[in-house]
Amino acid sequence: MQISARRREKVTIFDLSGDVDFANSRQLRQSVFREIQENRTPQVVVNLSAVGYIDSSGVASLVQALKASRNLGVRFILFGLSTPAREVLRLSRLIKVFEIYETKEQAAAL
Amino acid sequence: MRGPHYAGDTRSTCLQGRRDDETTVFSQLVSNSESAPSLDHASGDPLFPVAHALTRSFMKEQSSSSRASEKPEWLTHIETVLEMLNEGIVITNEDQRILFVNSRFVEMTGIPQRDMLGADASEFYSKQEWEFLAQQIAVVRHQGRHRYEFLLPQKDGGRLPVIISSRILQNSGGEFRIITASDISEQVRIAKELRSANAKLQERQLEIEEDLRLAAQVQTSLAPKSTARGNVTVDSFYHPVHSIGGDFAVVNWHDHDQVSVLMCDVSGHGIGSALVANRIYSETTAHLRAGVCFSDMFGRLNRFLIEDIAGSGMFVTVAAARINARQRRMHFAGAGHPPAMIARGSHSPVLLQSHSMVLGAFPDAEGTSESLEVELEPDDRVVLYTDGITDVFNSSGEILGIEGVREIVREAASLPAEEMKQGILDGVVAWRNGPPTDDASLVLVHVR
Hints:
Chain A is α/β, with parallel strands linked by helices.
């Protein structure tokens, strides 16, 4: 998994690519948590368009990030779900829990 | 260093004597000449042999002593610079006589400079040490330079670990060996500590492996055995990717025709997942035995995970089926779990989707579950599994996925019931490139 951050005034976008699995989900969690808990960025957006595979550990990291965001009043958004990312969120029945948009423009327009 | 070779005062006396070589030799020879009259008869001149020997010896010693203590001009010019270096510096001539030592080397050895200058370097070492050094000197002579670790003898009998860097210099018509000694005692101390820590880690690792072996035995003992009662046969497979994992299954027979099967997968794998899995195993088993309806069971599990294992960041997916073979009826419920399958003849298996979200993530997961009621037909085969079965990749990086497993199940359903489980597993292995990367579990229920 590759993870990079783009920061604007009140929004940070994390671009993920590759596979998000047990080996690297901790890195995802730490990166997003730092943005939410330390930087207190009002809006954190995760771009999943280039994710090839995401396992239950990766989903767990997204769930933890969402819960932490809710606790601190941060808006946590997913956008551009790749087919594997959408499938795993659908199977876990979590797809309706997250705020999800199709494109970066839709997510950024908020 | 041979103890006596440098034993402080002894050595000092020896070296002190060296500076008086000429006088000493002369006195000895004079003394010898007086007590060796037999030599006189050979020459016919009683004084000639003595004088001759005296002259030769004196000249020889004069030459040797001169060579031993004489500094080449180039060395005289750079002494001040060598004194300023942080490394110990020793310069010897081709006879291994010490021509120069800087104060850092004196500090490293504790041996006064006056005791070393002019001395034969071999005198400071034990026989074994000097044999080793002689080998290194040979290498230096052959290669022109050399670098090696050594324990430098100290005046108090200690040994200072150093890196010796040695070079041969041809100059002033002679050959000189320039030796640099770098104190590595701190590095050696750290390396020793690391070795010690590593040994402790290895010991701890063995303890952990033993613990894990026992844990694996316990967890394997929880895996359901393949059983058959009445018109129902249950086949199971469990394989943790590590010694222990987060998958488990429960099979609970209510009577000969009624059986409940539960498949559970804790997110992640390894020790953390296994601990959570073992913690909730007894909860789910108790619920199944008590005949708690699935929606209530999911709600209780969800609350338990959120309240009692809060902060673990883990969630659980569950698929549960209660089968009444006599009535050919099955109740099914899933929470964020890959769909169960009912294989029927050569048809594509029916998928039974989860209607609840994963458990342990959000409080509002409970109450959303719905139990499906499914009519079963003779020879139906119900397949429950975890994502370790679906999430395998071929050499092209393509995931097998639910549809891939569905096709494997369809093909395996043509096999006799007792061969179907292995048929499914073989199909998964045939797709998979490399070793498994996730815990994998499978339960197959055949309703005759």
